[in-house]
């Protein structure tokens, strides 16, 4: 009886693996060249609003250094 349990477990695991592989095989994929072209296009269109490229206006910068204390 104990010899059947491991084989049933292996069969169940194999079925789960096959089911997962079937799901992954149905995923629509695109070529790397197309994906990279899309990324470049996206970056070009959003370049003006990117604070890392355009910078943050001093009036809107919450991390702007405060004026030094004049008492010291």
Automatic annotation (TrEMBL):
PROSITE patterns: G_PROTEIN_GAMMA (PS50058). Residues 7-72 form the G protein gamma domain. This is Guanine nucleotide-binding protein subunit gamma. It comes from the Eukaryota. One of its GO terms (molecular function) is G-protein beta-subunit binding. The keyword Transcription does not apply. It comes from Poecilia mexicana. It is found in: Cell membrane.
């Amino acid at each position: 009886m104990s010899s059947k349990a491991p084989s049933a477990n292996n069969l169940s695991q194999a079925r789960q693996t096959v089911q997962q592989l079937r799901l992954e095989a149905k995923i629509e994929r695109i070529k790397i060249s197309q994906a990279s072209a899309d990324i470049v296009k996206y970056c070009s269109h959003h370049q003006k609003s990117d604070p890392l490229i355009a910078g943050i206006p001093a009036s809107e910068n919450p991390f702007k250094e405060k004026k030094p204390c004049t008492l010291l």
